[in-house]
Amino acid sequence: MDAERGIGPKQAYQALVDGGDIKPDATQASAIDELQALHDALGAYAAQMGKKNWMTRLRLGRNRMPPPRGMYVWGGVGRGKSMLMDLFYDCVPIGTRKRVHFHSFMQEVHKRVHSFRQAVLAKKAPESSDPLVALSRIITDQAWLLCFDEFHVTDIADAVILGRLFEALFEEGVVVVATSNRAPKDLYQGGLQRELFLPFISLIEDKLEVFELDAGIDYRLDRLKTMEVFLTPADAEADRKLERDFKSLSTGFSPCPVTLQVQGRKIEIPLAAEGVAMVSFNDLCEKPLGAADYLAIAECFHTLLLRGIPRLGPEKRNEAKRFVTLIDALYEAKVNLICSAEAPAEALYIEGDGAFEFQRTVSRLMEMRSADYMALPHAG
After folding, report:
1. Pseudo-torsion of CA 17, 18, 20, 25, nearest 10°?
2. Pair (178, 227) in one structural domain
3. Domain hosting residue 233, numbered range
C-alpha cells in the first residue's frame, strides 16, 4: 500500500502518468493537488482523532482542532473520479478510515436505525435518544475519514435522514471525501419533499470543497472501445483476456473482494476495483440470488466482467431464469458487460422453460455490445 511507503497521492498519480498507465490530464492534476493538500492537512489532525474516543473529544471542547475541509469531486462517467479518490485513500496513513459505496453505507445506516427503534420498543433504549447522534459516534470511532464512491440520492428515506446524520458526523469531526456524477445542487433533483433535503446540500457545500472533474474525455469508454466484450468460447484464452481487461479498467487500484449486504443476505464479489467487478457465472447464477441482489450489483458497479456463461438447457432452467434477471438489472442500470460464453448469445438457451422469452435477453446482450450503449451513463 502506498501509505506504507510514504507516498502521497500526487506522487502516486504522477507514477501512473510516467508509467503510461493513464494519460496526462490537467483537470485530474488539479484535483490531485487538492487531494494532496488534504492528505497533508490530515497529519496533524489525525493526532487528535486517531486514539481518542468520542467522550475524550467532547472534553476537548474549544481546544479541539477544527477538521480540514473534505472534498466532493463530481463529473461525468469515466473521468477518473474514483481513481483519484482511491489514490488518496491508499496514500493516507490512517487506520481509522473507510472507503465505501454510498449505497452500501446507507443500507447499513437504515439497518442500524431500525435496530435502534426495535430496541426502543423493547424498552432497551430510551425513547429520548436520537439514533443518528448515537450512530454518528459509533461511525466516528470506527472511521473518522469516510470516502464515499458514487454519492447520489434517489430515495426519500435517505433524503430525510441525511441532513441530521451528516450534521452529527461533522460535529464529531469526521472528514468526508466523495465522488458523484452530480453537483451537490443537483442531488435528489425532482425528489419528493425536496425542500427538506436542501439544508443537506448547504451543509455539503459548507463542509466540503466542491470540485468539478470534467475534461470532456470518458477514459473508461476509450478503453471499452478497444475490448472484445463478448468472448467465445469460454476457454483459458478468454480468461486471460478478461483479466487483462479488468486490469486495464481498474488502473491504479488494488483489487479486492467486496461483500454487498442485501436484505440481510451477503453477496460475495470475488474481485472489484473502481466500480468494476469480475465474477463467474457460477458466482451469480448458480446460487439462490434474486432480483434485489442483481439490482444491488447493478447499482454498485458500472462495469461487470462475467466469466464462463455455459450453454443452458432444460436441466439449467433455474440458472437461465437467474441469468435473464441479471441481464435485465444490468441493462436497466446501463452497466457495461464484458463476458465469456461457451456459445454465441443466440445459441445459449434454445431449449427449456422460457427459451422463447430468452430471445429478449439475446437482444439485450447484442445491444449491450454497441458503442451507443457503452456511452450511456451508469444509472445505478
Report:
1. 30
2. no
3. 219-374
